[in-house]
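User: Can you help me understand a structure? I only have the sequence.
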Amino acid sequence: MSEKKNLLHEILAVVGSLDGAKDKIIAEAQNTFTKKPAHFMGWHKKLEMHDEERKQEEIEENQAIVTTVMDKLDYMKQSCSRFYDAKLQKETGGQLAKADIIIDDQVLASDVPVYFLLELEKELKQLRAVYDSIPTLAPGVEWKKAEDIGKGIWRAANKLQKTKTEKSIQHKIIVPATKEHPAQIREWNEDKVVGMYITDTWSGMLSPAEKSILLDRFDKLLRAVKKARQRANGTEVPKVTIGSAIFSYIHG
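Assistant: Let's start by predicting it. Here is the structure, written out as tokens:
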């Protein structure tokens, strides 16, 4: 039966929990060393009475040693060694694990390191939000390319027309004037067209179709990077260790 392969994605899955367990055990060991010294002490106490008539008062008390410093260190060593070994294998695997970024059977980049692929995936997810927020041309307007004005410029096919009006006071005599009374006149405001606003509109926005093409290409790239990362994480990692050597040196 062949030996089970040591794959990078399996190491990545456990290294976090090993780190947490290691920190917890280190903290517990330090707390025991500083606040519970009685755990490392044992004693036997006996009361012997000189007066024979008081022999019944004799007692014996014992306190067993809960643990030893070396036992506590050995327990901590096991957890630390597992984490150190996993961390070393993770970093070793990170140096070995590479994959190509492939889109539509075309290689965009070759032998990209796995940790860069992981960071690139995060960066692209952040960047996609920018592309998703791209403004597009107003609907209901016929737009035409205006390359004569500039690259990426659109021009409204029809000019927008809007009348310019001014208020004018109109009046009408209701009751003519007499010798005794002035004329009665009614006045009112009336809007009078005096001109025409003609607006020629340009826009540097994208058409909805152009934005859709960009987002589609962006999503293809994201999927390709994710697949490359998954392939790289399938790299077999040598079972290198370092924890035992570290504690062998510390403990002599």
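Now, to help you interpret it: The chain has five helices and nine strands. The mean pLDDT is 91. Let me know which part you'd like to focus on.
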